[in-house]
Amino acid sequence: MITDKNRPMTAREELIRELVERLAGWEGRLILVHGGGSFGHHAASEVESLEEGVTKVRWAMHELVRVFEEAAVEAGVRVYPLPPAVLLHSLNVVIDVLERDCIPLLYGDVVPAEDGFRIMSGDEILERVSTLRVERVGFGMDVDGVYPERPGVGEPFKELTPEEARELARELDGAAGVDVTGGISEKLLRAARIAERGAEVFLFDASDPDNVERFLRGKRVGTRVVRERD
Fold first, then answer.
1. Residue 109 CB partners (closer than 8 Å, separation 6+)
2. Which of 133, 153, 172 is the last residue before a domain boundary?
3. Less packed terminus of the chain by CB within 10 Å, N or C?
4. Which residues constitute the domain of residue 122?
5. 60, 19, 53, 17: which is closest to 38 by C-alpha?
6. How do residues 12-53 score in pLDDT, each as one tens digit?
Protein backbone atom coordinates (compact mmCIF):
# COMPACT_ATOMS: atom_id res chain seq x y z
CA MET A 1 0.00 0.00 0.00
CA ILE A 2 2.85 2.42 0.81
CA THR A 3 4.89 1.09 -2.11
CA ASP A 4 4.23 0.12 -5.70
CA LYS A 5 4.62 -3.65 -5.44
CA ASN A 6 4.99 -3.95 -9.20
CA ARG A 7 8.00 -1.59 -9.26
CA PRO A 8 11.07 -2.64 -7.24
CA MET A 9 12.24 -0.28 -4.48
CA THR A 10 9.52 2.27 -5.18
CA ALA A 11 7.95 4.06 -2.22
CA ARG A 12 4.78 6.12 -2.51
CA GLU A 13 6.51 8.98 -0.74
CA GLU A 14 3.72 11.55 -1.07
CA LEU A 15 1.23 9.13 0.45
CA ILE A 16 3.62 8.26 3.27
CA ARG A 17 4.08 11.95 4.09
CA GLU A 18 0.33 12.56 4.13
CA LEU A 19 -0.33 9.53 6.31
CA VAL A 20 2.34 10.58 8.81
CA GLU A 21 1.00 14.15 8.86
CA ARG A 22 -2.37 12.78 10.01
CA LEU A 23 -0.61 11.52 13.14
CA ALA A 24 0.80 14.91 14.08
CA GLY A 25 -2.12 15.77 16.36
CA TRP A 26 -2.68 12.26 17.66
CA GLU A 27 -3.12 11.91 21.41
CA GLY A 28 -2.86 8.47 22.87
CA ARG A 29 -0.80 5.36 22.41
CA LEU A 30 -0.19 4.08 18.92
CA ILE A 31 2.03 1.44 17.32
CA LEU A 32 2.90 1.66 13.62
CA VAL A 33 3.80 -1.39 11.57
CA HIS A 34 4.58 -1.59 7.88
CA GLY A 35 5.48 -4.47 5.61
CA GLY A 36 8.20 -4.88 3.03
CA GLY A 37 6.28 -3.83 -0.06
CA SER A 38 8.39 -3.52 -3.19
CA PHE A 39 11.51 -3.20 -1.04
CA GLY A 40 11.72 -6.27 1.17
CA HIS A 41 9.51 -8.56 -0.91
CA HIS A 42 11.41 -7.82 -4.10
CA ALA A 43 14.82 -8.24 -2.49
CA ALA A 44 13.76 -11.53 -0.87
CA SER A 45 12.48 -12.87 -4.17
CA GLU A 46 15.83 -12.16 -5.84
CA VAL A 47 18.20 -13.95 -3.46
CA GLU A 48 18.89 -17.67 -3.58
CA SER A 49 18.45 -17.98 0.17
CA LEU A 50 18.01 -15.69 3.14
CA GLU A 51 21.26 -17.03 4.57
CA GLU A 52 23.13 -15.74 1.50
CA GLY A 53 21.04 -12.60 0.97
CA VAL A 54 20.28 -11.49 4.52
CA THR A 55 22.24 -8.24 4.20
CA LYS A 56 20.63 -7.30 0.88
CA VAL A 57 17.09 -7.89 2.16
CA ARG A 58 17.70 -6.01 5.41
CA TRP A 59 19.27 -3.11 3.52
CA ALA A 60 16.18 -2.90 1.30
CA MET A 61 13.87 -2.79 4.31
CA HIS A 62 15.93 -0.11 6.03
CA GLU A 63 15.66 2.05 2.92
CA LEU A 64 11.88 2.01 3.32
CA VAL A 65 12.17 2.75 7.05
CA ARG A 66 14.32 5.75 6.14
CA VAL A 67 11.50 7.15 3.99
CA PHE A 68 9.16 6.87 6.99
CA GLU A 69 11.65 8.54 9.30
CA GLU A 70 12.15 11.46 6.93
CA ALA A 71 8.39 11.97 6.72
CA ALA A 72 8.13 11.85 10.53
CA VAL A 73 10.88 14.45 10.95
CA GLU A 74 9.14 16.76 8.47
CA ALA A 75 5.79 16.35 10.25
CA GLY A 76 7.18 16.63 13.78
CA VAL A 77 5.96 13.14 14.70
CA ARG A 78 8.06 11.26 17.24
CA VAL A 79 8.55 7.75 15.92
CA TYR A 80 11.10 5.26 17.20
CA PRO A 81 12.04 2.48 14.74
CA LEU A 82 12.58 -0.90 16.33
CA PRO A 83 14.10 -3.88 14.51
CA PRO A 84 11.54 -6.67 14.74
CA ALA A 85 14.13 -9.16 15.97
CA VAL A 86 13.65 -7.63 19.44
CA LEU A 87 10.13 -9.08 19.46
CA LEU A 88 11.57 -12.59 19.42
CA HIS A 89 12.61 -12.09 23.02
CA SER A 90 10.22 -9.61 24.60
CA LEU A 91 7.71 -6.82 23.99
CA ASN A 92 9.21 -4.76 26.81
CA VAL A 93 11.06 -2.34 24.53
CA VAL A 94 7.79 -1.58 22.73
CA ILE A 95 6.20 -0.77 26.08
CA ASP A 96 9.20 1.38 27.07
CA VAL A 97 8.90 3.44 23.88
CA LEU A 98 5.14 3.91 24.38
CA GLU A 99 5.69 5.07 27.97
CA ARG A 100 8.00 7.77 26.63
CA ASP A 101 5.22 9.14 24.44
CA CYS A 102 6.89 7.92 21.26
CA ILE A 103 5.32 5.85 18.51
CA PRO A 104 7.10 2.51 18.02
CA LEU A 105 7.72 1.96 14.31
CA LEU A 106 8.05 -1.72 13.49
CA TYR A 107 8.53 -3.22 10.06
CA GLY A 108 8.83 -6.51 8.23
CA ASP A 109 12.40 -7.76 8.26
CA VAL A 110 14.70 -10.77 8.29
CA VAL A 111 15.10 -12.25 11.77
CA PRO A 112 17.20 -15.12 13.17
CA ALA A 113 15.52 -18.51 13.11
CA GLU A 114 16.40 -21.89 14.55
CA ASP A 115 18.01 -23.06 11.31
CA GLY A 116 19.22 -19.74 9.89
CA PHE A 117 17.02 -16.76 9.04
CA ARG A 118 13.39 -16.14 8.16
CA ILE A 119 11.16 -13.22 7.28
CA MET A 120 8.97 -11.75 10.00
CA SER A 121 6.15 -10.04 8.14
CA GLY A 122 4.34 -6.90 9.19
CA ASP A 123 1.24 -9.07 9.67
CA GLU A 124 3.07 -11.33 12.10
CA ILE A 125 4.32 -8.28 13.98
CA LEU A 126 0.76 -6.98 14.30
CA GLU A 127 -0.30 -10.27 15.82
CA ARG A 128 2.60 -10.23 18.27
CA VAL A 129 2.01 -6.67 19.50
CA SER A 130 -1.74 -7.31 19.76
CA THR A 131 -1.00 -9.26 22.95
CA LEU A 132 -0.43 -5.86 24.63
CA ARG A 133 -4.17 -5.59 25.29
CA VAL A 134 -4.76 -3.40 22.26
CA GLU A 135 -8.36 -2.44 21.54
CA ARG A 136 -8.19 -1.80 17.78
CA VAL A 137 -5.92 -3.16 15.07
CA GLY A 138 -5.88 -1.97 11.47
CA PHE A 139 -4.46 -3.81 8.45
CA GLY A 140 -3.89 -1.16 5.80
CA MET A 141 -4.51 -2.21 2.19
CA ASP A 142 -5.19 -0.49 -1.13
CA VAL A 143 -8.78 -1.75 -1.48
CA ASP A 144 -11.92 -1.00 0.53
CA GLY A 145 -11.87 -4.23 2.52
CA VAL A 146 -11.98 -7.97 2.01
CA TYR A 147 -13.89 -9.11 -1.06
CA PRO A 148 -15.56 -12.50 -1.64
CA GLU A 149 -13.41 -13.23 -4.68
CA ARG A 150 -11.15 -10.71 -6.39
CA PRO A 151 -10.23 -7.33 -4.84
CA GLY A 152 -12.52 -4.57 -6.12
CA VAL A 153 -15.06 -6.98 -7.62
CA GLY A 154 -18.49 -6.72 -5.99
CA GLU A 155 -18.94 -5.43 -2.45
CA PRO A 156 -16.49 -6.04 0.40
CA PHE A 157 -17.62 -7.81 3.54
CA LYS A 158 -18.73 -5.43 6.27
CA GLU A 159 -18.06 -7.87 9.09
CA LEU A 160 -16.56 -11.31 9.62
CA THR A 161 -16.22 -13.59 12.60
CA PRO A 162 -12.86 -15.28 13.16
CA GLU A 163 -14.32 -18.52 11.82
CA GLU A 164 -15.56 -16.81 8.66
CA ALA A 165 -12.22 -15.07 8.20
CA ARG A 166 -10.38 -18.41 8.35
CA GLU A 167 -12.73 -20.02 5.85
CA LEU A 168 -12.33 -17.09 3.47
CA ALA A 169 -8.54 -17.23 3.82
CA ARG A 170 -8.60 -20.79 2.51
CA GLU A 171 -10.56 -19.67 -0.56
CA LEU A 172 -8.47 -16.66 -1.58
CA ASP A 173 -5.25 -16.84 -3.54
CA GLY A 174 -3.44 -13.81 -2.12
CA ALA A 175 -2.65 -10.25 -3.06
CA ALA A 176 -1.45 -8.95 -6.43
CA GLY A 177 2.20 -8.23 -7.05
CA VAL A 178 5.28 -9.85 -5.53
CA ASP A 179 4.54 -10.97 -1.98
CA VAL A 180 6.55 -13.60 -0.15
CA THR A 181 4.58 -13.49 3.12
CA GLY A 182 1.07 -14.65 2.25
CA GLY A 183 -0.98 -11.69 1.00
CA ILE A 184 -4.64 -11.29 2.00
CA SER A 185 -4.95 -14.89 3.21
CA GLU A 186 -2.24 -14.30 5.80
CA LYS A 187 -3.90 -11.06 6.90
CA LEU A 188 -7.20 -12.86 7.44
CA LEU A 189 -5.63 -15.63 9.49
CA ARG A 190 -3.78 -13.14 11.66
CA ALA A 191 -6.88 -10.95 12.00
CA ALA A 192 -8.90 -13.96 13.17
CA ARG A 193 -6.44 -14.74 15.95
CA ILE A 194 -6.21 -11.11 17.03
CA ALA A 195 -10.01 -10.78 17.13
CA GLU A 196 -10.25 -13.88 19.32
CA ARG A 197 -8.24 -11.99 21.93
CA GLY A 198 -11.01 -9.39 22.07
CA ALA A 199 -9.68 -6.64 19.80
CA GLU A 200 -11.59 -5.08 16.94
CA VAL A 201 -9.72 -5.69 13.70
CA PHE A 202 -10.22 -3.71 10.51
CA LEU A 203 -8.90 -4.44 7.04
CA PHE A 204 -9.33 -1.25 5.05
CA ASP A 205 -8.08 1.04 2.31
CA ALA A 206 -5.29 2.98 4.01
CA SER A 207 -4.20 4.58 0.74
CA ASP A 208 -6.96 7.08 1.55
CA PRO A 209 -5.63 9.13 4.50
CA ASP A 210 -9.22 10.01 5.47
CA ASN A 211 -9.84 6.33 6.18
CA VAL A 212 -6.80 6.26 8.45
CA GLU A 213 -8.14 9.24 10.35
CA ARG A 214 -11.56 7.61 10.68
CA PHE A 215 -9.92 4.47 12.03
CA LEU A 216 -7.95 6.48 14.58
CA ARG A 217 -11.16 8.21 15.70
CA GLY A 218 -12.81 4.89 16.41
CA LYS A 219 -15.01 4.75 13.32
CA ARG A 220 -15.72 1.66 11.26
CA VAL A 221 -13.77 1.29 8.03
CA GLY A 222 -13.45 -1.52 5.53
CA THR A 223 -14.06 -5.05 6.78
CA ARG A 224 -14.38 -5.58 10.51
CA VAL A 225 -13.32 -8.87 12.12
CA VAL A 226 -14.73 -9.27 15.60
CA ARG A 227 -15.23 -12.12 18.04
CA GLU A 228 -18.94 -11.46 18.51
CA ARG A 229 -21.27 -9.54 16.23
CA ASP A 230 -23.07 -6.49 17.62
1. 36, 40, 57, 58, 61, 83, 84, 85, 119, 120
2. 133
3. C
4. 1-133
5. 60
6. 999 999 999 999 988 889 999 999 999 998 899 999 999 999
Give the three-state DSSP class for 90.
coil
Q: What is the pTM of this model?
A: 0.91
Q: Which of 93, 116, 133 is the last residue of a domain?
A: 133
Q: What is the CATH number of the domain that holds 203?
A: 3.40.1160.10
User: Edge to edge, what strands does the sheet with 32-34 contain?
Assistant: 32-34, 103-107, 79-81
Tell me the pLDDT tens digit for each residue of 123-150: 999 999 999 999 999 999 999 999 998 8
Torsion angles phi and psi, residue 184, rounded to 5 = -65, -35
The angle formed by the CA atoms of residues 11, 2 and 155, to the nearest 5 degrees, is 140
Same domain, 170 and 224: yes
Q: Any idea of the CA torsion for 20, 26, 28, 32, to the nearest 10 degrees?
A: -10
User: For the chain, how many structural domains are there in total?
Assistant: 2
Closest to 177 in 3D by CA, of 41, 64, 59 = 41
